[in-house]
Amino acid sequence: MIEIQDLHKQFGNVEVLKGIDLVVKESEKVVILGPSGSGKSTLLRCINYLEYPTQGSVKINGNAFEDKNRKNQEKHIALLRTEVGMVFQKFNLFHHLTALGNVMAALVTIKGLSKVEAKQIAEFNLEKVGLLEKAKNYPSQLSGGQQQRVAIARALAMDPKVMLFDESTSALDPELVGEVLRVIRGLAEDGMTMVLVTHEMKFAKDVADRIVFMDNGVIVEDSPPEVFFNNPSTERAKQFIMQED
Ligand code: ADP
Ligand code: MG
């Protein structure tokens, strides 16, 4: 589903990703762990082309989205963004739109659906995250956990093949983390292909098929959770696990 080959990303003179190879199969759940600044967010952002690779390739479902022709490239990337949903630490909802309006927006503007069709799909996905009864609320009338669930519904409404989560519970008060993790876990059980960056170690252990441990712009370990947490093969991973526990 995702095939990353020799991915490099440089900001100015600083190389932040130094040759990443990663394959994520359909339905697989990959959790990316690693110290702050190791390049986790940059990697996720390269997967849906919020950042352009400096070198190497990212393919989704066999398609590379590079095209020398700029117009074509923009079209490819718009298509890619509908196939790869991303949920960030901050919820990034439109404050002047209701929960329903937030989930409908891209269905109308990007997918070109009628308002009636968009509303149906939006309601279905709000229901999925347990928020249909809050459809008419504005973001300011929702808790952080509810706002993040709306953000998840908005991504799901596009019918993505892959979901990326970048520390999607890190900005939440502790008592609101559980409701968001439950929604993500539900998606995992439904078979969604997912790449997650998280600091929730217990969640990572439960949900991940594989743990990818990054440090300083490279993948240091790539192993099943029971191996990674019980018997990490590098000193850096051992230290990281001790700190996080
Ligand atoms: P992580 O998510 O693992 O904490 P990031 O991918 O956010 O790490 O960042 C990795 C490194 O890249 C950091 O040193 C960060 O300062 C740098 N970086 C990230 N984005 C940019 C950018 N747009 N411009 C310059 N440097 C950046
Ligand atoms: Mg980050």
UniProtKB/TrEMBL annotation:
- Protein localization: Cell membrane
Q: Which residues form the ABC transporter domain?
A: 2-241
Tell me yes or no: is Transport among this UniProt entry's keywords. yes
Name the chain's protein: Amino acid ABC transporter ATP-binding protein
A GO molecular-function term, please? Answer: ATP hydrolysis activity
Q: How does it sit in the membrane?
A: Peripheral membrane protein
| Record's GO cellular component terms | plasma membrane
Q: What Pfam families does UniProt report for this protein, alphabetically? A: ABC_tran
What SUPFAM superfamilies does the entry give?
P-loop containing nucleoside triphosphate hydrolases
Q: Which domain of life is it from?
A: Bacteria
Under the heading InterPro entries, the entry gives: AAA+_ATPase, ABC_ATPase_HisP-typ, ABC_transporter-like_ATP-bd, ABC_transporter-like_CS, MetN_ABC_transporter-like, P-loop_NTPase
Q: Give UniProt keywords alphabetically.
A: ATP-binding, Cell membrane, Membrane, Nucleotide-binding, Transport
**CDD domains in the record:** ABC_HisP_GlnQ (cd03262)
Per the UniProt entry, what species is this protein from, by scientific name? Answer: Psychrobacillus soli
Key word Cell membrane present in the record? yes
